Amino acid sequence: MMRDLAGPLKLIVTLWLAAASAIHLYWGGFGFPEPITLRAFHLLVFVPPLFLLFPARPGRSPARRPSLIDWLWVLAAAAPHGWVMWHWAAVSDRMEYVDPFGTEMAVLAILAIVTLLEATRRAVEVGLAWMILISIAYMAFGHHIPGILNSRPFSVAEILEASWLVPTAGGVYGPLTGIVATTIAVFIVFGAFMQGSGTGRLFSNLGAAAAGRFSGGPAKVAVVTSGLFGTMSGSSVSNVITTGAMTIPLMIRIGYKPTVAAGIESAASVGGALMPPVMGAAAFVLAEITGIAYGEIVVAATIGAILYYFAILAAVHFEAKKAGMAPMALRDIPAWREVAQDAHLVIPIAVLVWMMTDRWSGNYAAFVATLAMVGIAALRRRSRMGWRQVLESLTNAGLTMAPLAVSIAGAGIVVSALTATGLVVALGGIIKDLAAGNFALLLILLAVTVLILGMGIPTTPSYIIAAAIGVPQILELGSKALGVPPGDLLLPAHLFVFYFAVLADASPPVAAAAFAAAAIAKASPLISSNHATRLGIAGFTVGFAFLYDPGIMLRGSLADIVTATAIQVGALTAICAAYAGFLLRPMGWASRLLLGGAGLFAAFYHGVPDLVRLAVALGVPGLIGAVQLVRLPRPVQP
């Protein structure tokens, strides 16, 4: 829980974070400094404030002011990054693992690692802090472990250098920190300005106007609004908190169980990281790792994201119809003319999309779109941003970037340990051996691995670690199983891992988004996460479809694209209807089992031609629907 600072200290921290965000935005438009300088500055401005903002022990530490110990943590966190900035030329010129790593550097490395661990524990996830610590411990003691997990001995200096000062390969100042300090940082600023300009109001009103008049309106509004909000933040938990405070009570009021309402909101919020054009931070990491243009990734991910939200809407529709739920009250549904009053705020998003698809760099596109947002917002008084709104937006961007900075730097340490020890090869080998040459089993094992990693690790570091372990195995075995070159599988393989890393936020037993939604609904977190998982079933089907049905990535002929999409639409409709027990009318167990089995067969079984899967996906729901249509009671003639 973040502190509520007061007085001059609140002003200082606000100005500090706003200035840090503004500098990152400026660099996005006018060019970045030397990589090591940029990365050190990024951590210097974002790590120390976390010790002022987050108490060491919530409920015991001072709630409105930092303690003396917190100030010591601030100084300790600033020292190593300040030193690197001051000696940037020497650090850039040194030969890694060859030039001496003296006592001064060792002390600074310890300070950097320890403060990073504590900042991660306070502001991100305890689980990630433990994973970082275990990775370092493995470098120290891995040579004592027998079998496939055995590693070579590492000296203390080698461990500290690999964790802290190997900018070309990993560690605190590795490429991952560079990605966050460049493209991701500027996009976070853009998202903050979207919210500050009233784009959130536009999305909320659009969701209510589009879906509020239908049965179970509040649930559908939650789905649409959360997807739109996700284009701004890409953070499932922040989406839940922002939209769930409004939609969850509304859903409960019209008849949804609190656990179902929490599940709907968390599933919809998690999908925000999958929704183009911005998606989440992990998507930018994906672009950097693969070297694939972000615009190409956005295009490939579009149908999958639409399918994800289609499935949630279908599920809540069937639930609402079965329970006879009413739409939103007319007084709560904004008129379309009110939505139109904010329509101009779509222009900066269109600018961003155009620049990304025209292959401008992501950081420059976000820089231009941010300036466009300020200029376009000024066209109407209700959206105009004064200096207070600009300051608040920059500060909010800093509050988002600070925890992300430490989590990515921590992931850099984990990746450095995985590569230096060869553990990434060992884990990949274990999964490969368990799969025994079965590509489908390999994907299932990797999906489970990513979901387990996501229990205690945020989406981006979870994706990074899982991609390092699993993608090489997918490329090797998938090329043989599917008969395509490994290069053609690069993006599908990464999207597969990316989807499951995102879904981990809503999957039990530990699901950050579902737990946040459950807190608002005053419901069971575990049951809420179970509902979120079944509502997000499209994430599982689409994840596998990226590899087996490339048509959903807009690859292949028009017939391939239409067939792959139609299979998913039919399969997801069948699965959602079977779970709810309602298609056009309530269904018995026999119909539900037939419908659910047909949906799962069409979505996951690739041992038959696509036309057979398509016939099952569309034919079985169509047949059951036709039977129900015949049996529906006819209206009484007056």
Automatic annotation (TrEMBL):
| InterPro entries from the UniProt entry | DctM, TRAP_DctM-Dct_fused
Keyword Cell membrane recorded: yes
Instruction: Indicate the principal place this protein occupies in or around the cell.
Output: membrane
**Alphabetical keyword list:** Cell inner membrane, Cell membrane, Membrane, Transmembrane, Transmembrane helix, Transport
Q: Where in the cell is it found?
A: Cell inner membrane
Superkingdom as given in the UniProt entry: Bacteria
Membrane-protein topology = Multi-pass membrane protein
Report domain TRAP C4-dicarboxylate transport system permease DctM subunit positions: 112-525
User: Which PANTHER family does the entry link to?
Assistant: BLL3936 PROTEIN
Q: What is this protein's function? A: Part of the tripartite ATP-independent periplasmic (TRAP) transport system.
What name has this protein been given in UniProt? TRAP transporter fused permease subunit
Species name: Belnapia arida
